[in-house]
Design brief:
Blueprint lengths: L4 H29 L5 H8 L3 H6 L1 H12 L13 H40 L8 H44 L1
Length: about 170
C-alpha cells in the first residue's frame, strides 16, 4: 500500500468531511428532538471532540445560531430563549453584587454600633445617667429573680420525673 502525500491528503479530507457531516446531522437531530444545543452536546452526539467545532468557525456559528433558535413547535409567548436566560443571569448577578455590597455596609454599621455599645458598657466611655443605670439594675435583678423561680420549678419537675422513673423501673424489674 503506497502512502503518497496526495493519498494522505485525500484521506484526511475525507475524514474531515465525514466528521463535519456527523456534526451537522447531530445538530439537526438535537434541534428536531428539542434538546439543549451547546457545543458540548453537539460534539457528544456526533462522537467528536469539542475542539473540532471550535476550530471550524462555520460549525461553531451553526451551533450557536441553532442554539439561539426556539425549538420547533414552540409558541412565541411561552418559550424562553437562551438570550433571555443569559440576560436574567446577568441581571441576577448584578443584583447579587448590589445586595452583597449592601450587606457589607450593614455589617459595618452593626459592627460600629456594637463597638460603641461595648465601649459604653465597659465604662471607658462617657458616664451614663445614674437613674438609667439604677433602672437597668432593677430590671436585671427582677429578671434574675424570675429566672431563679423558673429554675426552681424545673428542678422540682426534674425531681418528680426521676422519682416516677425510679418507680417505673422498679415495677419493670419485679
Amino acid at each position: 500500500m503506497s502512502s503518497s502525500p496526495d493519498h494522505l491528503a485525500r484521506a484526511r479530507a475525507a475524514d474531515s468531511h465525514r466528521r463535519r457531516t456527523r456534526v451537522l446531522k447531530a445538530l439537526d437531530k438535537l434541534a428536531a428532538d428539542g434538546e439543549e444545543i451547546t457545543v458540548s452536546s453537539v460534539a457528544r452526539a456526533a462522537g467528536v471532540h469539542r475542539s473540532l467545532i471550535h476550530r471550524h468557525g462555520d460549525l461553531r456559528a451553526a451551533v450557536l445560531a441553532r442554539a439561539a433558535e426556539p425549538p420547533p413547535g414552540a409558541t412565541g409567548g411561552t418559550q424562553v430563549s437562551r438570550q433571555s436566560l443569559l440576560a436574567d443571569v446577568a441581571n441576577l448577578t448584578a443584583r447579587n453584587s448590589r445586595l452583597s455590597a449592601h450587606i457589607t455596609r450593614l455589617e459595618r454599621r452593626l459592627s460600629e454600633s456594637l463597638g460603641q455599645a461595648a465601649w459604653e458598657a465597659s465604662g471607658l466611655g462617657a458616664p451614663a445617667d445614674v437613674e438609667t443605670l439604677t433602672r437597668r439594675v432593677t430590671e436585671l435583678e427582677q429578671q434574675l429573680l424570675d429566672l431563679r423561680a423558673e429554675l426552681d420549678e424545673r428542678d422540682e419537675d426534674l425531681v418528680a420525673a426521676r422519682a416516677a422513673n425510679r418507680e417505673l423501673m422498679a415495677q419493670v424489674n419485679r
